[in-house]
Write a structure and sequence with these properties.
The protein is an alpha/beta fold. The chain folds into two domains: 140 residues, Rossmann fold; 140 residues, Isocitrate/Isopropylmalate dehydrogenase-like (Rossmann fold), CATH 3.40.50.10750. It contains 14 helices and eleven strands. Helix 1 crosses helix 14 and helix 2 packs across helix 14. The radius of gyration is 20 Å and the shape is globular.
Amino acid sequence: MSNLFHTLREKAKANPKLIVLPEGEERRIQEAVRFIAREKIAKIVLFDKGVNLEKLLQEELASGFLRIINPDKNYLYEKYVSLYAEIRREKGISLEIARKIVKENPVFLAALMVRNNEADGFVAGASLSTSDVARAAIHCIRKKEKNSTVMGAFIMLVPDCPYGENGLFVFADCAVVPEPSTEQLAEIARETADFTKNVLGILPRVALLSYSTKGSSKGKPIDKVLNALKIVKEKSPDLLIDGELQVDTAIVPEVAEIKFPYSPVAGKANVLIFPSLEAGNCAYKLVHRLAKARAVGPLFLGLEKPASDLSRGCGVEDIVDAVAVTVVRAQK
């Protein structure tokens, strides 16, 4: 475990928040909950739809850091159904449809508990697709502002890597917005930088990535990056950000010295903002698999309260760290 994740776990322990894990039937979730409750990283609400988790997790229940509920029997169930119907009324969601959605998708119930201030955040995705988890978060939890962009950021930790923050990077958006507009790209950059600074405690150095470095190529995608850079500099003049930069120029000092030596970011970027979801998703999976990096996320940014996704191939340690970072975000 890196110093970063150790630090996040210790921060979480200082003020543990209530986090919902709706996938109680998952063995990896159960194992992670044992560790989380024992270490007092978070107070957990775990959903159980018939696995009889009380017998499996007696010690954790006794700690006071775990509560298990059967969502089908939860006396608040109809209240959540009504709440979802109210939230989505303008989208044509009736009470009957809301009941079907909430009953068939426990992650929606988890998100609604967060919306209703009955939990501080949720973590899901061990058995669900990112689109399912993102839909629940976006539909149920209020955005920071009415027109805020919701995005998915990954904490990437690359072993034996001298680049970024000693191998640590934050990638975005890798999960939500397929083709961000200029304004959305700017917001993704600013929100991800804010997360890096205020949650991870790291000074963000943000690179807006492209297939071009400072005019080496032309095209509408490059114009979008340049316009996004202009917006960010106007709204956050103190933020260390530059673009358009190719990946090697952004992270490798020797390449930056050749291609663009006068940038405050080139060669030392630790926050990488991708021009599209396609680019970001491919990049994080390549780094995760080929460089054997830890990949925690996507962490949904742009919402009033924290929600985190898990890869369906996640390990127990990934779940623990996703919960820890969700707690630290909730503390803010």
